[in-house]
Structure to design on (231 residues):
């Protein structure tokens, strides 16, 4: 439960402004870092946490849509391998 | 959930697209302009009891920060399945957290035949709350 709460907090946090981000130890990946592992076809799952309505128009190629609410209620399907790197993204800071 | 390697790409989709990196960009909904309404103007519309439907598309966690009295919450994630709850024939005022999701929600509604749409400027947090307007729980 503790980890589940952490994951949800991470998702919620991605909607926060930059000022709040600076005060946290939540791990982030920069655009440059993500592009690097993206181009290297690294072993990670890129997850769009927005609504299906938004995902239908804009998404990063290769990402999957798991909306925040479906993750919360356990309907969003995450990989069985718990060590796999998960990269969540949404609309970015305010 | 037990995942040990979770990170957030906080710069997010706008930065990725801005750099021209690989993205699926489709025009699923009509490209229309949906005017914004400043929070003070929305408050005045409410006070005048205008015939409006305030559609709050935030999720339940964000609602804990308060709501606009008289608004109706339909999370953007379930809006498609809940259109019967959104009346036609009224002005729809779309409210989100920071004003970043109302355009997409409005364009989606336009694709479903809604033609009287406006967006709360800055959303609930950066618009309504920032102006110090009253909140309901």
């Amino acid at each position: 439960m503790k980890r589940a709460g952490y994951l949800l907090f991470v998702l919620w946090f991605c909607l926060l402004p930059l000022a709040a981000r600076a005060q946290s130890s939540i791990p982030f990946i920069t655009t440059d870092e993500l592009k690097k592992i993206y181009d290297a076809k690294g072993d990670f799952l890129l997850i769009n946490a927005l609504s299906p309505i938004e995902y239908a128009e804009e998404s990063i190629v290769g990402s999957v849509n798991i909306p925040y609410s479906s993750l919360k209620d356990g309907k969003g399907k995450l990989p069985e391998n718990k060590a796999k790197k998960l990269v969540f993204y949404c609309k970015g800071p305010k | 959930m037990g995942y040990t390697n979770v990170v957030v790409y906080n710069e997010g989709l706008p930065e990725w697209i801005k750099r021209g990196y690989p993205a699926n960009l489709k025009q699923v909904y009509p490209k229309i302009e949906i005017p914004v309404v400043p929070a003070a103007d929305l408050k005045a519309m409410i006070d005048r009891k205008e015939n409006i439907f305030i559609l709050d598309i935030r999720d339940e966690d964000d609602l804990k920060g308060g709501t606009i009295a008289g608004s109706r919450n339909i999370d953007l994630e379930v809006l498609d399945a809940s259109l019967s709850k959104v009346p036609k024939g009224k002005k729809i005022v779309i409210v989100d957290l920071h004003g970043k999701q109302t355009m997409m929600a409005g364009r989606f509604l336009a694709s479903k035949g809604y033609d009287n749409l406006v967006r709360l400027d800055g959303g609930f947090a950066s618009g309504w709350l920032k102006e110090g307007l009253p909140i309901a729980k």
Q: What stands out?
A: DSSP finds five helices and four strands in chain A.
